[in-house]
Each structure stands twice: as structure tokens, then as C-alpha cells.
């Protein structure tokens, strides 16, 4: 296999030395999902674990012993972008972190800290900082983009003149407002000739900075790019797994933000563990259902970028989306909650995007529709939750049994319940 360290060009060349395999059908719980994936043509080729492990280990050894082997740029000085840049620098890669504000860059150079997003955590002495976008991007092997979704397309347009063979890896989770474009879609739009990948997983930046064992997924159709990212970021406390399902990995990272808001709202009502477990499992069903309609492999949602990221984001007060949900559950409106948070919560935009897409395509997404009703239609959260509990019956594990309720049935039920409640109120008022 060609080492990802040799040149930018080699990172883009994908040698496919994988072999087909049949899913293990002894696991009866996953049988329906596996068969669905196989019948729909969504099954992926299975990597040869020993060959991959050997190749990545070799590349890691070369990179870590020679810092000039891999040149990386990280665009975006938020918590996750900073944490990943710090990890790469600590691994010995030639790493530059780009931040838009010149004053912020000067402060980071002086203090070796990111006071706004990661206060109290010293960054690696070898990490470089820059506010010069052209100088940061030029002559790099891989450019990691950790910019909020609202500015993602603009950032790609800005770096386009300086791209001459670099690979692009998105660290941004979410969807572009009004277009339903994932970050990979935007990369293909703005830089159609560029080799790219996406990274996602349960990656709370503060825990990574604390060296708490964590893991992520790099998804790309290019095997050399996957290996390069693994070699650059893999460490004793941070594991990097590979996938070729770009759509599934990216959707997992985007959709889970919706349910983190739902879980934050539930926490505000001090719900029990049974309720939390129900929300998590039904959220996973919604994610996989939506993913399959978008062309993703449903099995991807059982991995780190699916259930792993979902669990971490829905159970941690470090999650921005969870905190937004908590504020909403306490009666704060969405504008006030976002202002108080002071950071981007991608789930707010994602709820609107997915609600509109699911409604148009007829995809059954009851939790998403309920959140949309609370945030954008000013419905009472408790009332919407009660409607959800009353709304029909479905089978437990997705893709195993046929369902007897659709979005249309759910909508009709909620409208009927709402009308009934209003009529009861009118009757009470007239007594």
C-alpha cells in the first residue's frame, strides 16, 4: 500500500485491497437490519483488519518519528478544532491552527491556551497558530475544517484559490440552512476535484484534552486518506476507526444533535431512567430510518458515529445542544436560549431542516416533528410529549417488522388531540 506520507497526490489514490464478506447471521437481534442492508445493496466491503492495522501502525511510526512527514491545517479555533489540532501536534505532525481573529492568535501564541473555548488547558508547544488563511492552507497534505455549518461554504470558497492537491476533512456536524446540504455535499459543490472525508463520533473536546479514552470515525472513499487521518490522530487515549459510509457517518453526527435537545428538555422535567432509555432508542430508530432513505447503511448507526455519538451527546451537560434543550424545557424561548449559550448549537437548524425534509418525503420522524412544534410553533412541550406517547404502535427494532403508522397518521392524531383539548377548554370556560 502507498504510504499517505509520500505526497498529497498519493493520499487521493485509493487502492482497494478489501474482500467481500457475508454478515454474521447468528446474531438474531441484528438479523433484520443486516438483511435489509444486504437486500438494499447497502452492504459494504469488509476491511481486512490485520492488513489495516499493520499499514496504519507503520504509517503512525513513520509520522511520529519524523514530524515533517505529514503537514496539517486545522481551520477553526473552537473547542473541537483546537483539541484535534493539539492532538495532531502532540503526535508529531507539522500542525497549524487557523483562527480568524488576529488578536486571538496573538493571545494563543503567548499563553499556549484557548481561553475562550478550552480555558485552563495548555496546548502542545509544537502547535502553530495563524490568522493568514492562504499561508495556513498552502502546501499542506490535509486541511481539517472545524467551522460552524453556517460559515462552511464561505470558508471553502475562501480557500479554493489555494487548493492544489490537498485533501479536505470535515469536522463539522450539521446541515446547511435552507439547502439540506451536508458538509460533504458542500465540499463536492465548491471543490469538486478534491479528495475528502468526514470525521464524527462521541468527541467532547474537554474530555479529549483531559486524556480520557475516546474514539472517532474517519469516513472516506479513499483508503489512503483514512489511513493518513488514523496515523495523524490516533494515540494512546484517542482511537480512530475507519468507515467508507460517508453519508451514514455524517448523518449520525448531524441527526444526534436533534435528540440531544430532546434529552435536555426531558432532563428539565426531571424524567426517570426509563424515559431517557426510551428517547435514546426511539431516536436511534429515527436516525437509521432517515439515513436509509438518504442512501446510508443502517449498520453505520450502530457504530461510534451513530449510537456512540448519540449517547455521549444526550447524556452530557458538556453538549451545547443538550444545554439548549434544558433551557427550552425550563420555559426559555429559542432566541434567548441561543443567546445565553453564546456558541453554535447545530441541532436547532437541523431540527428545521429534517422536519421539512421528512415531511416532504414522508419519513416517520415523530420526535423531530414534536421538537419543531415546540420550538417553531410555540406548542407546550409537555402537551406535545403526551401526544407522542398516545400516537399509535410500532415495532421495536427498525427494519425487522412492518409498521402500521406513518407521518400522516401521527400528524392527524396530534391535530385531533389538539382540537379535542381546545374544545374541552372552551366547554370548561362556558360552564
How would you describe this protein?
There is one protein chain. The protein is of the alpha/beta class. It has 2 domains: 8-16 and 47-244, Rossmann fold, CATH 3.40.50; 252-430, Orthogonal Bundle (N-(1-d-carboxylethyl)-l-norvaline Dehydrogenase, domain 2), CATH 1.10.1040.10. It has 19 helices and 8 strands. It has helices at 8-12, 28-39, 49-65, 79-90, 102-111, 133-137, 152-159, 183-190, 205-209, 223-233, 246-268, 273-293, 304-314, 320-329, 334-341, 346-361, 366-376, 381-390, 407-430; strands at 71-75, 94-98, 128-130, 142-145, 167-170, 196-200, 214-219, 238-243. The chain has an 8-stranded mixed sheet, with helices on both faces. The radius of gyration is 23 Å and the shape is globular. It starts with 7 loop residues before the first helix and ends with a helix. Belongs to the NAD-dependent glycerol-3-phosphate dehydrogenase family. NADPH binds at residues 79-80, 100, 117, 173, 205, 320, 346. Residues 72-223 form the Glycerol-3-phosphate dehydrogenase NAD-dependent N-terminal domain. Catalyzes the reduction of the glycolytic intermediate dihydroxyacetone phosphate (DHAP) to sn-glycerol 3-phosphate (G3P), the key precursor for phospholipid synthesis.
Amino acid at each position: 500500500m502507498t504510504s499517505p506520507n509520500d505526497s498529497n497526490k498519493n493520499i487521493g489514490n485509493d487502492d482497494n485491497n478489501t474482500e467481500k464478506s457475508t454478515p454474521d447471521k447468528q446474531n438474531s437481534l441484528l438479523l433484520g437490519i443486516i438483511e435489509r442492508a444486504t437486500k438494499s445493496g447497502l452492504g459494504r466491503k469488509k476491511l481486512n483488519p490485520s492488513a489495516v492495522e499493520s499499514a496504519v501502525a507503520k504509517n503512525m511510526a513513520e509520522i511520529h518519528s519524523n514530524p515533517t512527514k505529514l503537514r496539517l491545517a486545522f481551520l477553526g479555533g473552537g473547542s473541537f478544532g483546537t483539541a484535534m489540532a493539539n492532538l495532531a501536534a502532540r503526535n508529531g505532525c507539522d500542525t497549524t491552527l487557523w483562527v480568524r481573529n488576529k488578536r486571538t492568535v496573538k493571545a494563543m501564541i503567548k499563553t499556549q491556551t484557548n481561553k475562550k473555548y478550552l480555558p485552563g488547558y495548555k496546548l502542545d508547544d509544537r502547535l502553530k497558530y495563524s490568522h493568514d488563511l492562504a499561508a495556513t492552507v498552502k502546501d499542506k497534505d490535509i486541511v481539517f475544517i472545524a467551522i460552524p455549518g453556517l460559515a462552511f461554504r464561505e470558508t471553502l470558497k475562501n480557500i479554493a484559490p489555494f487548493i492544489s492537491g490537498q485533501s479536505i476533512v470535515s469536522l463539522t456536524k450539521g446541515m446547511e440552512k435552507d439547502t439540506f446540504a451536508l458538509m460533504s455535499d458542500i465540499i463536492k459543490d465548491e471543490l469538486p476535484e478534491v479528495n475528502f472525508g468526514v470525521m464524527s463520533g462521541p468527541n467532547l473536546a474537554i474530555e479529549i484534552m483531559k486524556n480520557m479514552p475516546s474514539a472517532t470515525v474517519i469516513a472516506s472513499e479513499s483508503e489512503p486518506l483514512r489511513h493518513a487521518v488514523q496515523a495523524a490522530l490516533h494515540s494512546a487515549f484517542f482511537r480512530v476507526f475507519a468507515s467508507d459510509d460517508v453519508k451514514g457517518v455524517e448523518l449520525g453526527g448531524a441527526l444526534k444533535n436533534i435528540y440531544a435537545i430532546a434529552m435536555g428538555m426531558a432532563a428539565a422535567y426531571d424524567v426517570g431512567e426509563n424515559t431517557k432509555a426510551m428517547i435514546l432508542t426511539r431516536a436511534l430508530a429515527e436516525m437509521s430510518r432517515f439515513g436509509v432513505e438518504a442512501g446510508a447503511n443502517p449498520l453505520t448507526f450502530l457504530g461510534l458515529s451513530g449510537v456512540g455519538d448519540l449517547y455521549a451527546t444526550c447524556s452530557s451537560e458538556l453538549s451545547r445542544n443538550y444545554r439548549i434543550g434544558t433551557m427550552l424545557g425550563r420555559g426559555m424561548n429559542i432566541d434567548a436560549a441561543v443567546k445565553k449559550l453564546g456558541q453554535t448549537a447545530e441541532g436547532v437548524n437541523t431540527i428545521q431542516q429534517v422536519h421539512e425534509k421528512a415531511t416532504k418525503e414522508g419519513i416517520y420522524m415523530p420526535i423531530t416533528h414534536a421538537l419543531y412544534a415546540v420550538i417553531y410553533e410555540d406548542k407546550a412541550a409537555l402537551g406535545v410529549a403526551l401526544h407522542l406517547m398516545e400516537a399509535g404502535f410500532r415495532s421495536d427494532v427498525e427494519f425487522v417488522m412492518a409498521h402500521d403508522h406513518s407521518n400522516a397518521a401521527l400528524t392527524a392524531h396530534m391535530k385531533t388531540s389538539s382540537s379535542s383539548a381546545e374544545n374541552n377548554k372552551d366547554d370548561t370556560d362556558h360552564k
